[in-house]
Design goal:
Length: 144
């Protein structure tokens, strides 16, 4: 995705009438800073739709109890919780696939690159493993 200087005069269409609240904000935020390719534009459209759907599911879930009665009278989680979780996961995957750079990055990283950056330190060591090992050391047992 190419960056633009905060201007939206690059021929990218505005969010369509179907985009609402959170989805429209997502669209406006991305297209005001970047010039998406045709493929990225389609991914963004899907992310916007999914964001709006998740927003609707969340509003609906707030009106209902978190636990409902199951077929045998047992309490079970409201199925909308799973629907909302699935939508949020899909939104994350769609947005991650756009490879939008963080504020301190010039070019966005792919999912694999982000994962590798989290796992390695400045010298290529397994930072997480070393940090965990350093904090989990126990003092030697006192012998008596």
């Amino acid at each position: 995705m190419s960056q633009v200087g905060g201007q939206c005069e690059h021929g990218i269409p505005q969010a369509a009438d179907w985009a609402e609240g959170a989805g429209k904000r997502l669209w406006d935020e991305v297209v005001s800073k970047f010039i998406p390719t045709a493929g990225e534009l389609e991914i963004l459209r899907q992310a916007v739709r999914c964001t709006d759907e998740a927003d609707k599911w969340e509003r609906e879930l707030r009106k209902q109890p978190a636990l409902i009665l199951g077929s045998m009278g047992q309490l079970r989680p409201n199925p909308l919780i799973k629907v909302l979780q699935d939508h949020r996961l899909l939104i994350r995957r769609l947005v991650d696939s756009l490879n939008i750079p963080d504020e301190e990055e010039e070019v966005g990283m792919t999912g694999r690159q982000r994962h590798a950056a989290r796992r390695t330190g400045p010298l290529g060591t397994a930072r997480g493993v070393l940090d965990e090992a350093a904090t989990c050391r126990r003092p030697a047992a006192a012998t008596g």
